[in-house]
């Protein structure tokens, strides 16, 4: 097995992650207009899932864990275990901002921001 040179993937990672975040913002706005739209709920779930996977692959575990919390929230909605509450929209938007800030740090400093407390806070706020 060979070691992957993840630096070679950094540009693609950042580009796709930013596109996913843009799509998340747009879908979240749509979801607030149609809070029971299963297509939008699934798309938001899928985007958080993709972001989580990308971050784990690149070794950015804290950013991935924040994505995982949001993914789990939307998985529960998608699976019918809970309903979307538009009052949580600002919490999700804040999580997206934290992910964006981490991407900026990854781009400029080659390291993610320490969002450990944000992960705990997001888990607490979405429960």
UniProtKB/TrEMBL annotation:
PROSITE patterns recorded: HPT
Domain HPt as annotated: residue spans: 2-113
Keywords, ordered alphabetically: Phosphoprotein
Organism superkingdom: Bacteria
Modified residues (Phosphohistidine): 49
Signal peptide: none
Matches recorded under CDD domains: HPT
GO biological process terms on file: phosphorelay signal transduction system
A Pfam family annotated for this UniProt entry: Hpt
Classification via SUPFAM superfamilies: Histidine-containing phosphotransfer domain, HPT domain
Entry keyword annotation includes Phosphoprotein: yes
Classification via Gene3D superfamilies: HPT domain
PANTHER family, per the entry: CHEMOTAXIS PROTEIN CHEA, SENSOR HISTIDINE KINASE CHEA
Identification of the protein by name: HPt domain-containing protein
Source organism of this protein record: Candidatus Roizmanbacteria bacterium RIFCSPLOWO2_01_FULL_37_16
